[in-house]
Amino acid sequence: xxxxxxxxQCVRVRALFRWQRIDRGDIVTLRDPTSxxxxxxxxxxxxxxxxxxxxxxxxxxxLEESYVPTxxxxxxxxxxxxxxxxxxxxxxxxxxxxxxxxxxDYGPIRRSCIRGRVRNSNxxxxxxxxx
Length: 131
What we know:
Strand content: 35-45%
Shape: globular
Radius of gyration: 14 Å
Helix content: under 10%
């Protein structure tokens, strides 16, 4: 999630209950296919995402992603592919696009995989440790 979150940074994670809404732009903890991860929600149920020419298009409109450095283009194993979030699915991506494994690699994430919402805090609830 660099540059938004950095290695050894303490953050507070607030558990999400089933009835709580998840919005685009939220930073969440989730269980992805290989581990527990921190990702940004890019698409919500019903959204379509396309990666094209290094940019992310959401529902046909190029995203302005202020959290991704301007000199960084989005790359993925399946560039040009289209992802559609089903009724109970979310499209997630890390801010460090060159190092991140996320929805363009393994598909949308089911709501049940999302565990909490990240909140920056001076008191440490969760320590980010990049290898």
